[in-house]
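Same chain as my last thread, 98 residues:
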Amino acid sequence: MTKSELHDFLTLNFDLVVDSVERGGGRTYFLKQVDWRPASTTRVLRVEYNHETVKQIRLCVSSDNNNSVFAPQPWRLSELSNLVGNEIRSLINRRENV
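reply #2:
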């Protein structure tokens, strides 16, 4: 899966957005709006790239400060759809319970 294919999949199917000022070998995906503040963050995924190739996908909601949770490879769109949907539901539940 290429960087462009994954980006289109995430933005078109899940209403995820990226921080336009973020630079480097990856992108962080947020639900509807960019909010980095820990108490109200909208972070869902962090995708690392090597040029056009996706290296890893970190599930931000499932991860914590000490442990990162990564989407298992190989990445199939049906499996990613379930993982991303679960991350979004967890984020919404977390925000409702604060």
